[in-house]
Structure formats: structure tokens, C-alpha cells
Amino acid sequence: MARRALRLGMVGGGEGAFIGAVHRMAAAIDGDWQLAAGAFSTDAGRNTRTGEALGLDAARVYPSFGAMLAGEQALAPAARIDAVAVVTPNNLHAPMAIAALNAGFHVFCEKPMAMSVAEAEAIAAAASASGRLFALAFTYSGYALVEEARARVARGDFGKIRLVQAEYLQGWLSEPIDTTGNKQAEWRTDPARAGLGGCLGDIGTHAFQLAEHVSGLRVEAVSADLMIHVPGRRLDDDVSALLRFEGGARGVLKASQVAAGEENGLKLRIHGERGGLEWAQMEPNTLILRWLDRPAEIIRAGGPGLHPRAAALLRTPSGHPEGYIEAFANLYRGFTAAIRGGGNPWFPGVSDGLRTMKFIEAVIANAASDRKWTSVNPGEKE
Q1: 196 vs 68, 170, 230, 231, 360, CA distance in Å?
Q2: DSSP designation for 194
Q3: How far apart are CA 84 and CA 38, in angstroms?
Q4: By Cβ atoms counted within 10 A, which residue in 123, 208, 223, 323 is the most buried?
Q5: Are 167 and 267 in contact (CB under 8 A)?
Q6: Dihedral through CA 197, CA 203, CA 206, CA 212, nearest 10?
Q7: How far is CA 76 from the centre of its chain?
Q8: What gap in Å lies between CA 265 and CA 56, rounded to an integer?
Q9: What is the DSSP string of 343-371?
């Protein structure tokens, strides 16, 4: 018997939104998901138009998130959605994720996980109690060569890790477009909707998650500086942090959304006793390895010698570039396999979300104090 596609319901992501469309494309790539329902906008006209444009049954384009949960629960199990994609501003992540989990649906949520550590812990508790899965959209960890880098660090190719540098530079908020009607900028700089951190929560969390994910090390403490460069802005648009990792490694994290002229400059460098690696999101199909005692190497996506886990994330032969959407689709692939009970697939989830929320709160606390270091792991020795 043919295996049916899983059914996805979406909250947010209506007409004109960026990330909702990305989720829909990523979920559809491998044929494992079908968008079946949605509550796309609180604006009734926009909500209806989005459903029509996506070809949905009008009866399953719901006027509110609560109506979607109730309507889908009322359907026979063979017809209702399997998971909810939460693609709203940050302030709605926790209440919507918790409600969906409690209603018996798996959740794939945008990052950051929540508005606070307390909210993230409430999501974690709901996921545990419901027995449902919770995934987070840390997209960049889905790239094949990020997995290659992680595998090489884990097997000890570079020796003991000493240095971790994560950089994420954008320039799109260099001017006050959040005050001139740009909706994406508007909510990201609004504390009521974005949370405690602006640039910190939006892209600093990506850099932090990637640094821990690839290095395999937890950050123990931070020494940080937050800056608002654009007058009148209410949340940080520039972040600098020194990182202390377990085992003695040291790191630097730089994230900015006012680096004029930059596009999406996420870069990661990791160095150990014998060598190191470099990966950049804008050239994602290349991994550079540098060695203490021999020439540098360039590893290419689809080329020879890839770790099996990395090779399994590729969909095209070498020389056929894969990018952001494919990386995002790899997160959905892992999420799908876990729902179907297929082995032990990895995808970013509760633990990544909790770690990044602790990082946000530690950076904000440190930047606001005169302390040199602040623990990312409250209750543990700093």
C-alpha cells in the first residue's frame, strides 16, 4: 500500500509573508507533506485570499487558530492534519505550540522558540506530556556540508577544539525601515512581538545554535555587548559576545543587522589542535579544511569522501547547487521520519530551543550588568 502524505496545518504565513511560503516549499519538496488547512491571517480577506491561492478547501481555511484546532479535531483521524506549522511573530509561538501539542498535533515552529526561558520550558513540558514532536526552524543546520563539518569534528579530525567563531551579518535594518511600513522589520523591532532580543533573537540565535551544533560543545558563559545603532529603535540591532565553551574552548559570536551592504553573511570557523574548518551560508556547497601540517582542502557537496550522513541530505549530483530551501527541507525530512517512526533522525527541537533561549537571557543580563561573565546554564558554576 502506498504511504500517504502527512497533512500540515499552518498558522500565520498569509499573503505577502516570507517564511510561511518557505515552510510550504520545504515541506513539499520530498512529497511527504500536503498543506491541508490553515489560519493564515487575522485579516479575513487576506486569510481567504491565501487559502484560495493555495488551492485549499474553503472549509479548512479557518478564521482563527482556535477554530483550526477545533475543526481539525472534529474530523476523522484519517482526514485531520498531522502537524501544525507555527510561522507567526515570536509572541505567539508558545501559546500556539502548547495548544497544538495539547490538542494532539505535532508542531514545527519558527525560531526563536519563545519569548523567555519560562515559555520554552512550558513548551518542552507540553511536548513531553502529549507525546508529540516539536521541531524548530534552525534552517542552517540542515545543510549537507554543515552535517559534514559536524561529523568531522565529532570523529576528532581536528583534535581537541580550541576556537569557535560564528558570524552573522546583515544590512537590511541599517535604516529605520521599521518606522516606514515594512512589516517584517516592524514586528522584529517591537519588544511586544519579538521578545527580549532584536538582532539577538532573530539571527544571533542561528549563529549560537550552529556553533554548538557543529562543535558539539555547550557554551558555559558569555561576556556580551548589545547595541542599538538606529536612533529610536527599541531592540538591539547589533550583538557582540565572547563565549566560554565547556572543555576550555573559547569563542566569538558577532551578529548584526546594520552591517550596511551585507546580505546574509552567516559564517562558521572552528579550529582544533591539528586543523580547522570554515563554512559560509552564501557558499553552502563548499567546506574548507585547513591543516597544521599539509595543504588546505576544499570539500564540495556531492563530491567524493562525504560522510554518509551528509551525503544522505543531498538531492542532486555534484555541481548542481542546493541551497536554503533544500536545507530547510532536510529539517522537515527528519521531522517526517520521526513522526513515522523511522530510526533515530535528527532535527532541531526542544533542546536547541531551550539552549538558545538561555543564551538570549544570558546575553541580555550580561550586557545590562557590570559583570564580566554570565552563565548560560543557571544554577551551574560560572
Answers
A1: 29, 19, 17, 18, 8
A2: H
A3: 9
A4: 208
A5: yes
A6: -60
A7: 32
A8: 36
A9: S-----BHHHHHHHHHHHHHHHHHHTSS-
Positive or negative CA dihedral for 102, 103, 105, 108? Answer: negative
Q: How far is CA 71 from CA 36, 39, 65, 241, in A?
A: 12, 11, 10, 46
Strands (E), 228-281: 238-245, 250-256, 265-272, 275-280
Q: Mapping DSSP to helix (H, G, I), strand (E, B) and coil, where does residue 146 land? A: helix
Whether 98 and 106 have beta carbons less than 8 Å apart is answered as no
pLDDT digits (tens, 9 = 90+) for 212-268: 999 999 999 999 999 999 999 999 999 999 999 999 999 999 999 999 999 999 999
**What are 32's three cell numbers?**
511527504
What is d(CA 148, CA 127) in angstroms, rounded to the nearest whole number? Answer: 30
| pTM attached to this predicted model | 0.96
Tens-place pLDDT, residues 259-285: 999 999 999 999 999 999 999 999 999
Q: What is the distance between the terminal CA atoms of the chain, rounded to a whole angstrom?
A: 56
Per-residue cell: 2: 502506498
Yes or no: say if 64 and 41 are a contact pair by the CB < 8 Å rule: no
Asked if 363 and 239 touch (Cβ cutoff 8 Å), the reply is yes
The enclosing H or E element of 125 equals helix 117-130
Q: Give Cα separations from 273 to 153, 160, 246 (angstroms).
A: 11, 6, 16
Letter for the amino acid at 281? Answer: Q
3-state secondary structure at position 82: coil
